Amino acid sequence: MGTDSAIAIDVRHLTVSYQSRPALLDVTVAVExxxxxxxxGPNGAGKSTFIKAVLGFVKPDLxxxxxxxxxxxxxKGQVAYVPQRGAVDWDFPITVRExxxxxxxxxxxxxxxPGHRDRQAALEALEMVRMQDFxxxxxxxLSGGQQQRVFLARxxxxxxxxxxxxxxxxxxxxxxxxxILDVLERAKKSGKTLVVVHHxxxxxxxxxxKLILIKQRLYAYGRPGEVLREDLLSRVYEGRLRIFSxxxxxxxxx
Length: 254
Ligand SMILES: Nc1ncnc2c1ncn2[C@@H]1O[C@H](COP(=O)(O)OP(=O)(O)OP(=O)(O)O)[C@@H](O)[C@H]1O
Ligand SMILES: [Mg+2]
Fold this sequence. Notes:
The protein is of the alpha/beta class. It has helices spanning 47-55, 96-102, 116-128, 144-157, 174-189, 201-207, 224-227, 230-237, 245-252; strands spanning 7-18, 21-32, 36-40, 62-67, 70-71, 79-82, 162-166, 193-197, 210-215, 217-222. Strand 4 and strand 5 (70-71) form a beta hairpin. The longest helix has 16 residues, at 174-189. Adenosine-5'-triphosphate is lined by residues 18-19, 23, 41, 43-49.
């Protein structure tokens, strides 16, 4: 296992199956530090599975995941996660402040309650996503875009170097999308590595330094211009390529 300090997430030959049906096959990707990386691919391509495997939530059949040069099992707490919206029970009775504080729980020993520093970190994270004024509201009372920002705050309060986000822009309006992107860019500037599942190919080149294109297998990994190529997209998205011709062309312009 390499200990190259420039690599934040080192995935090698990753194969993950559900009931012996492979969702990911032999995926090898090394994500460098301080990058904003997008994961693209059609529905069912294995994007969420990829994120969950990096987190250690699903067990690989084959292959390895290393975080900051260490096996993923030893790196718990170094990776923060914003789940796909559908995976969260939004009726759970909990305030915005408490959700942000949940990001701290991994650092708090079982015998101690959250302290001042934890509360401060949670509040700062809410400020970063501009949700501090909603701190005492129930999470279930917020709009989808506001809930998404609170979940981003939960991940930020953890203070991890690495953030994994599963479709943070799904179902939010254009202004919220901008606000979330702005937070991600600031997090990157402050030295974080971000891996973001994203389904809108029309903004992928603008938002990300690099793209991971998967559909069970890794089809491409590199700069947006290297990944958003017509031949690759037509193989991965099959018949639906026509709507992407626009994106491919835009990429080719100087
Ligand atoms: N818990 C599970 N049990 C069984 N099969 C699963 C499970 N989770 C995912 N799968 C299957 O694995 C494949 C990859 O799913 P995954 O959720 O990783 O795709 P995705 O790219 O995130 O899709 P989407 O764009 O719809 O979110 C799919 O065929 C899916 O049906
Ligand atoms: Mg998914």
